[in-house]
Write a structure and sequence with these properties.
elongated, about 220 residues, about 30% helix, four-stranded mixed β-sheet, 2 domains, alpha+beta
Length: about 220
């Protein structure tokens, strides 16, 4: 089945609380990027200075401008969605603003305990610390570092049964949002001014034509 439609997803102003409700640990991350994890086993360490007694994982939560395949059951078809850098940054900020750093699920179903986001950052340049963890992702990528105290989940991470993260939240189709959004008074006023300006231009052009035509007759 070939995906043909591409949709930009955005956060609506009246649904900011629902933007990122939780982060889910999953078998197959939608953004196709596995996380790096750290434990007592030295073979698992990418960064030597990481405390080996602390169980942590680092992963991208959202990658900007990356097409992600989605399935629409209503039309029985696949399509792509993507997020702009601005939306990725906004989502990361709202995630912390609404105190969702302690919320996590397993495969987007069961809420799990013992999972806490202890760091969250946006990659802003080539010197970003995500490179120390082996990631080579574009600027604007949202990264998180999570502490895993849940023994069962940690074992699944080590055995690579769980391979990455997937966000949970409410986003909307940018085009549909623009179609449904009620214009503000300022936008209406601005549109009216543009119409008035355009009408004045047309009137001036018409006056010039009439004057030119009259001058030709008088000659």
């Amino acid at each position: 089945m070939k995906a043909t439609r591409i949709v930009e997803l955005v956060i609506q102003d009246d649904n900011q609380e629902l933007a990122i409700d939780a982060i889910s640990l999953v078998h197959s991350p939608a953004i196709e990027s596995d996380f790096v994890y750290f434990g007592k086993e030295k073979s698992n360490l990418t960064l030597a200075k990481v405390d080996e007694e602390k169980r942590m994982l680092i992963s991208p939560a959202l990658i900007p401008n990356k097409n992600i395949v989605r399935y629409d059951a209503n039309t029985d078809s696949e399509y792509y969605v993507w997020f702009s850098k601005e939306t990725v940054r906004k989502a990361s900020e709202l995630y912390l603003k609404h105190n969702n750093h302690h919320k996590a699920t397993y495969e987007h179903q069961d809420r799990v305990s013992g999972v806490l986001t202890i760091e969250s950052w946006i990659k802003e340049g080539d010197m970003d610390k995500s490179k120390l963890y082996g990631f080579d992702l574009p600027n604007g990528t949202w990264f998180v570092k999570m502490k895993i105290d849940n023994e069962e989940l940690w074992q699944d991470i080590k055995s690579k049964k769980i391979k990455g993260l997937s966000i949970e939240g409410y986003f909307t189709d940018k085009f549909e949002a623009m179609q449904k959004r009620k214009p503000t008074d300022l936008e209406i006023l601005s549109a009216l001014n543009e119409i008035i300006k355009e009408n004045k231009k047309q009137d001036k052009k018409q006056d010039k034509k009439q004057t030119k035509k009259q001058n030709q007759i008088n000659k």
